[in-house]
């Protein structure tokens, strides 16, 4: 797993600065907040030899020693911290929809790094990247364009049809089925689509192809499970598998002790 680069830390830093009182934050507080929202793993989470810093926190400190933000006029450095500049504010505003999507969902560290790098390269591509949002998600401020909302709706509708089997659409985590549990007219499907990985496309990309690829990175979940996933910051497919293993669902599931993941019992109606 590659380590995060200083350029990949620029937008998350500007995002944090924009939310701080006076648009100021000290370096030590910046390290804490970046660690909290990006949850570094792998080498970046390891402690440096004979130091208190992790590789990640040292990279944040390097923003100052290498003048990464001040050289671009994104921020000034004063009183042992950063102050957001107007240039930095404008740059953040250009990418705010995407950064909100990346940092306020439950994507794993590697996916966040990858997408931040792509955003950094975006101006050179001269093509607009559109993020496909979770239309319902706990605690996420949904800022998105009309075209992104439309494509997100199309993805959700296509995914509902894709995952429906024999007229039923179960929650992938707890197996709840609205059509079985609620009487008419209250049994309309309220399933939601959880994004395991970020879903972007370029403005002129083929929408159907994007949807086909996106189906690999979403799961149908009931609103209860979706809320628990976001509130508890359950990251990636590995986190989802551990979450699913926590259910005691009347013997429907057995847990493989080697992998810690679920297998549906052979005699289950959900098989």
Structure description:
The chain is α+β, with helices and mostly antiparallel strands and 271 residues long. Helices cover 45% and strands 12% of the residues. It has twelve helices and nine strands. It has a three-stranded antiparallel sheet. A two-stranded antiparallel sheet has the order 4-6. Helix 2 packs across helix 3 (55-65) and helix 6 (96-103) runs antiparallel to helix 7. The radius of gyration is 21 Å and the shape is globular. Residues 250-271 have low confidence and may be disordered.
Task: Compose a concise summary of this entry.
The chain has 271 residues and is α+β, with helices and mostly antiparallel strands.
Tally of alpha and pi helices: 12
- What integer value in Å does the Rg equal? 21 Å
| Widest beta sheet: strand line-up | 1-3-2
Principal-axes shape call: globular
Q: Give the amount of beta strand, in percent.
A: 5-15%
Structural class: alpha+beta
Provide mean pLDDT, rounded: 85
Oligomer: single chain
Report the biggest beta sheet as strand number plus sense, adding barrel if it closes: 3 strands, antiparallel
Succession of helices and strands: HEHHHEEHHHEHHEEHEHHEE
Instruction: State the helical fraction.
Output: 40-55%
Strand segment count: 9
Beginning-to-end CA distance, first to last residue = 35 Å
**Low-pLDDT segments:** 250-271
């Amino acid at each position: 797993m590659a380590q995060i680069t200083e350029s990949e830390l620029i937008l998350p830093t500007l995002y944090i600065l924009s939310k701080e009182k006076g648009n100021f934050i000290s370096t030590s507080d910046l390290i804490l907040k970046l660690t909290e929202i990006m949850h570094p793993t792998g080498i970046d989470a390891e402690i440096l030899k004979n130091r208190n810093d992790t590789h990640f926190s040292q990279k944040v400190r390097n923003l100052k020693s290498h003048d990464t933000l001040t050289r671009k006029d994104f921020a000034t450095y004063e009183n042992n911290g950063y102050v957001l500049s107007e240039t930095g504010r404008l740059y953040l505003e250009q990418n705010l929809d995407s950064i909100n999507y990346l940092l306020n969902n439950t994507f794993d560290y590697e996916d966040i790094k990858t997408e931040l790098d792509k955003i950094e390269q975006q101006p050179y591509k001269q093509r607009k990247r559109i993020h496909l949002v979770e239309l319902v998600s706990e605690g996420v401020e949904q800022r998105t364009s009309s075209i992104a909302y439309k494509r997100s709706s199309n993805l959700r509708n296509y995914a509902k049809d894709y995952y429906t089997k024999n007229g039923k659409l179960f929650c992938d985590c707890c197996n709840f089925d609205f059509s079985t549990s609620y009487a008419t007219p209250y049994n309309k499907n309220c399933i939601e689509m959880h994004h395991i990985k970020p879903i972007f496309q370029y403005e002129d990309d083929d929408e159907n192809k994007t949807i086909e690829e996106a189906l690999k990175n979403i799961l149908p979940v009931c609103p209860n499970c979706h809320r628990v996933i976001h509130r508890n910051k359950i990251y990636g497919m590995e986190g989802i598998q551990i979450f699913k293993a926590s259910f005691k669902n009347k013997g429907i599931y057995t847990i493989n002790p080697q992998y810690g993941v679920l297998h549906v019992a052979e005699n289950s109606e959900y098989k």
